[in-house]
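A brief tutorial aside. Many learners find it easier to grasp structure tokens once they have seen a single protein encoded end to end. The record that follows does exactly this for tRNA-5-taurinomethyluridine 2-sulfurtransferase. Read the sequence first, then the structure, and try to relate runs of similar tokens to stretches of the chain.
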Amino acid sequence: MRWRQVTTQERPWKMKRCSSRNTSRGRKGSSETGLKLGTVPQEALRRTLFPLGELTKDFVKKIAAENRLHHVLQKKESMGICFIGKRNFENFILEYLQPRPGRFISIEDNKVLGTHKGWFLYTLGQRANIGGLREPWYVVDKDGAKGDVLVAPRTDHPALYRDLLRTGRVHWIAEEPPAALVRDKMMECHFRFRHQMALVPCVLTLNQDGTVWVTAVKAVRALAPGQFAVFYKGDECLGSGKILRLGPSAYTLQKGQRTSSVAKEGPSDSPGLGPAP
């Protein structure tokens, strides 16, 4: 049986030569292409064909089989930390890292709620399973120096929400950086930092060192340093930058507002501190 060779005429896509290339986000928001290609240099991207926007993995493997690309068929699936399966995450990590016991501390009153085996076992936004507590608590911050994990009650606690972050130097895919951002030093676009999350409207502010401040139009839950913010304009993926710093949480801002209000009103509202007759 002869293998049928797929030709460009048979493919349900069009190809053309170009000096530079951009990328589009996946159809129906189900593709990780933008998140993965946000760091690919233009030198490599312009020599690469990505006709996969409308194709499923099974169909791509079928094309590979028909063209005898057995190395593609035999390639193992992704084996990143996200794909450890149903194993207990904590036990898995502690096979490679030594435990570093620390405390769970309430963000609201600094009360110690329990202990853990290592701050590195937790990511911002996840539920912290604290022994002896019925109510769910969620990780809002970590102190690697002290080993403390700061937690808050409720999955929608304002300590989990922030609207400001700073990235490292951004890798721009087709235009470095976009002309509109160079001209105005600011640019409206969208970003995401997790696969399949909804795009978030934001404003980028360009810094002289190539980093950017990202101001989200609406506070976002569970931003975390180390993740990559990927930027989009319409369907085009512009590029990405590693999240290095976070702005204050909504809870911190609320506390600041309350403190400022008390400081202004304190002398007249506090017993015994009114103005002298």
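Self-check: The helical segments are 33-37, 42-45, 57-66, 70-73, 89-93, 179-184, 250-269. If you spotted this yourself, you are ready for the next section.
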